[in-house]
Design goal:
Aspartate Aminotransferase, domain 2, alpha/beta, Aspartate Aminotransferase, domain 1, 3-stranded mixed β-sheet, 2 domains
């Protein structure tokens, strides 16, 4: 290793440890569920995005196994050459119908979906209007596009309109936002964004990663939640959260999807999602279509846990979804709380800078439909114990 780069990396790692920002990556030794094995120890799982428990659902697992036998382990090519299988087209048709869209295209991940669509739609000479708390994949997609970026204040429509009126706005205009913000759990005001887009002749793009499986009828997402079908131009999704598998998608008009098949670089230059993952995703969507009991259980659990945490004096922010940020402030205290909770058999990660702003460190609790009331009561007891020890409550 070059010595200059060696020292650079050593110094940066030392700084992260000193400031309490070093991220220790834990190892999971079991399927995802309410309780999992973390670094060899059984713990209550408050970290997973497995909102509905579909990651280890027996029907989903069975579908993946059957696809392995029929189609093999991998597609062995990019989709534009020889990697598109009948399974990919089956999933895209099913998801488009589920979401109420004309057409849909799948990608390797939600992150890849944003990297695919943003640079394909806008470039140098165009302007993007992006919420200041948008996900890293949106930020990177915007950077790759080389379009001018206008960053508006979080969910602030006056700020967005002010940016839309800037004198240096040029070319095509794209407004992009998360539907549900993953660190705070609040929901973007999509109806107001759509109204401003229509007023200023802009395209609307929504990343619904944390809305799918959570919002709308049967978990159809934020567009369905707000009854905005046909008014949101581009909808990005991911399968790695509520769906419980791996992959991402973009839905919208038929011409949008035809265009992306010709222009989206992750589609053109990276192999397709594996048959097992695609089949598992198809089954997960079928489960959502036939029954919304898991979505209802998720919300019952979230409302119960948040209300009890508030009663005990915890600050759980302004979440409007099952994402529950337990606000701490100081990064070192948040890391210490994570450590103490782990000693009490609770797996809940501290979230610190740069994922959230400095001074906004927190424990982010991810509630699932797999949690029982007994699980939640166990967690409440431990949070209260540790919270009092550390002077948080």
């Amino acid at each position: 290793m070059n010595q200059t780069f060696q020292k650079f990396m050593e110094d940066e790692l030392s700084r992260l440890r000193e400031e309490g920002l070093y991220n220790t990556i834990r190892v999971i030794g079991s399927p995802q569920g309410a309780w999992i094995v973390v670094d060899g120890k059984k713990m209550l799982n408050f970290c997973s995005n497995n909102y509905l428990g579909l990651a280890n659902h027996p029907e989903v697992v069975s579908a993946a196994k059957a696809a392995l036998d029929k189609y093999g382990a991998g597609p062995a090519a990019v989709r534009s050459i020889a990697g598109t299988m009948t399974l990919h087209e089956e999933l895209e048709a099913k998801l488009a119908e589920f979401k109420g869209a004309e057409a849909l295209l799948t990608f390797q991940s939600g992150f890849c979906s944003n990297l695919a669509v943003i640079p394909a739609l806008v470039g140098k000479g165009d302007t993007i209007f992006t919420d200041e708390l948008n996900h890293a994949s949106i930020i990177d997609g915007c950077r790759l596009s080389r379009a001018k970026r206008k960053i508006y204040k979080h969910c602030d429509m006056a700020s967005l309109e002010e940016k839309l009126n800037d004198e240096d706005v040029e070319g095509k205009k794209l407004i992009v936002t998360d539907s549900v913000f993953s660190m705070d759990g609040d929901i973007a005001p999509l109806p107001d964004i759509v109204e401003l887009a229509q007023k200023y002749d802009a395209l609307v793009m929504v990343d619904d990663a944390h809305g799918e499986g959570v919002l709308g009828s049967h978990g159809k997402g934020a567009v369905d939640h707000f009854h905005l079908h046909g008014k949101v131009d581009v909808e990005v999704g991911t399968f790695s959260k509520a769906i419980g598998t791996v992959g991402g998608c973009v839905s919208g008009s038929k011409i949008l999807i035809e265009f992306l098949k010709q222009k989206a670089r992750p589609f053109l230059f990276s192999s397709a999602v594996t048959p097992a993952d695609v089949a598992a995703t198809i089954k997960a969507v079928e489960i959502l279509e036939r029954d919304d009991s898991l979505v209802k259980k998720l919300w019952d659990n979230a409302n119960y846990f948040k209300s009890k945490m508030k009663e005990q004096g915890f600050d759980v922010g302004n979440s409007q979804t099952p994402i529950t940020p337990v606000m701490i402030g100081d990064a070192k205290v948040a890391v210490k709380m994570e450590e103490r909770l782990r000693e009490e058999d609770i797996f809940a990660k501290s979230i610190v800078f740069p994922t959230v702003p400095r001074g906004k460190a927190r424990i982010r609790v991810m509630i699932s439909a797999t949690h029982s009331k007994e699980d939640l009561d166990f967690a409440l007891e431990k949070f209260v114990k540790v919270g009092k020890e550390l002077g948080i409550i």
